[in-house]
Amino acid sequence: MIDLASQDEAGPRKPVFIGDVATRQDIPRRFLENILLELRKHGLVVSHRGKMGGYALARSPDLITFADIIRAIDGPIALTPCTSRTAYRRCDDCKDEALCAIRKTLVRVRIASASILETTTLASAVGQEAGGADRREAGASG
Predict the structure, then answer these.
(1) Residue 125 — very low, low, confident or very high, per pLDDT cuts 50/70/90?
(2) Which of the residues 26, 89, 108, 133 has the least number of beta carbons within 10 Å of its own beta carbon?
(3) CA angle at residue 8 from 75 to 138, to 5 degrees?
């Protein structure tokens, strides 16, 4: 998704060939195809057929968060079903949720994780990578 977002800077929502992304990211094409299909199903990317086809972000990189992506690929951010906001389910072996020390801790973990993931966008990640590349290049030449 960061790769698609960085390509988005060249031309908003211009389709990118899946083979090019697989090569740049050094991942198997088939694996990438499966990920992109899941992301398309969740409305995060769109696909275009034909000679100039490929995949593009479904919306602006500043409107797609890491939380959106993780939920689409892996499901809820919470580590346990009883701490999830989007897929809550009481644990089968739980005697009392209100007294469960594990649940209380994992709720705090979910809140902290969600806070970071929901405020980190693809646009900010692309900016961080670009800034990191600039710093690396400056360090290498100096």
Answers:
(1) very high
(2) 26
(3) 100
